[in-house]
Amino acid sequence: MSNVFIAFQDNEDARPIIDAILADNTEAEATYPTGLVKIIAPGKLVIKRESIEELIGRSFNLQQIHVNLVTLSGHIDEDDDQFSLSWTH
Amino acid sequence: MDTPVIKKKLGLKDRYAAMTRDLAWDTTYQPMEKVFPYDKYEGIKIHDWDKWEDPFRLTMDAYWKYQGEKEKKLYAVIEAFAQNNGQLGVSDARYINALKLFLTGVTPLEYYAYRGFAHAGRQFTGAGARVACQMQSIDELRHYQTETHALSHYNKYFNGLHSPQHMFDRVWYLSVPKSFFEDAYTGGPFEFLTAVSFSFEYVLTNLLFVPFMSGAAHNGDMSTVTFGFSAQSDESRHMTLGIECIKFMLEQDPGNVPIVQGWIDKWFWRGYRLLSIVAMMQDYMLPKRVMSWRESWEMYVEENGEALFKDLARYGIRKPKGWIQACEGKDHISHQTFAVFYNYNAAAAIHTWIPSEEEMAWLSEKYPETFDTVYKPRWDFWREEAAKGNRFYQKTLPMLCQTCQIPMIFTELGDATKIAYRESDYLGNKYHCCSDHCKEIFDNEPEKYVQAWLPPQQIYQGNCFKPDVDPTKEGFDPLLAVLDYYNMKVGSDNFDFDGSEDQKNFAAWNGDTVDGAKK
User: Which of B241, B277, B109 is nearest to B178 (CA)?
Assistant: First the structure.
């Protein structure tokens, strides 16, 4: 199965996003190339707005991930509640 | 107090559609074919534009908001860098030469991308595709601006950064990126997206940005690394446009598959050739090295590429024709390319150097199959010659490949001691290419590539002199006249790093002598 990945700037804003992803995607793993946090997962990865809101204690618009996003790999599906990456084939 | 009731909103997908493609209409005063005349001639058949799935769904209000936040963060870092003399924190002033190549060779491509996407953003019949291109066009202009700002600080302190746009339009090594992009944006809108959004910004992008920006971080260049990460987040949207366009074309009509495959073959190869200069920067020009070109290629192309082409196999798309040769090239191209700049350093607006013993040991370790046998002997020879006072400078102009416009330095698959030469005849003239793949690109559209503006040919034809130049005057030196046409400052922009003004200045600013700095 092919890996998807997503990478964010390694800063405080991205921390709850990273934590939410790692909590919601049990097979995801984080690596730390200089200045980045890169999360790799087999096949699929989901970012859930609710999980992030739980961590930060306030409302969060998923599109805010753009501010700290660096790069990604996989087909995107997004709506107001979740943002996912997958290689379905 | 009552809990505020949140009014029901449209979901993201519906909101986005309402604000973009639902505002489009089919024209009646003029036929649609006349309003959108350029999206059929490439032979790509689209039966239903409604099947276009929008990549990222950023409506303009969200776009301005989040891009605005990114800009504020970026410019704060750039200002802090300037105020704190961040250029002194760079590991070694040799590193700045990588930035000189970036500013003159990559930044102008952002401007070309802005124009190309603005054009494509007018040409597609489907409103969804037009909106995505228009947004990307703004992103690319942003990249041109932010790169220029991030790198302009270095122009105050180092040579060779003073005339990026002027040099881009004239200098021999910069015709490589220039011709790459001009090839793309003189194609139709579908080829343009396949070339840029898919092949360059999806398949190959991480190779340019992630290792290079990590390299910038490792070498104390906060300005560039911040720009790099900020731009790359825009790139993630561009990548999705690329993959969406490919999927859309392939799903709309089976007849599109061979056309798209041909473009993927062409543009993977052209992109791979273009990246030779990045390979060289990564292996030779980062005093504090991060990973080798070979390692980056394996991670970002071989691994990710496997996943991507496995996904596209269901449409009948296979890996690009040049894949095997490009993978073999990972052991060679960085060494071959830096050698060119070393040899032609009299005519390049950067400094070069022989790698130190320590750097050669790193290269040996990273390239166990090729460095010691093929490339180290050359560096050893040039070092010996330089020590004798015979620093080797190549004084004749190179033969370039008609397609990629790189000097003919690339070798045959499986034999690194043999330069690869390929020829094509067209309308009574002979044209030269560096590889089967560049030759195939030429042979497919010779009427396009015979129009290439090749620097050596142009120089020999006398087209690379300033208008007031008099070749009959005593003491006329054609090479110096060409360098003047390039706006290159001889003695400060070019020649070895050792003995350069950059080296002396950097040592002085850091309170070192040049020898002290070397220790």
Answer: B109
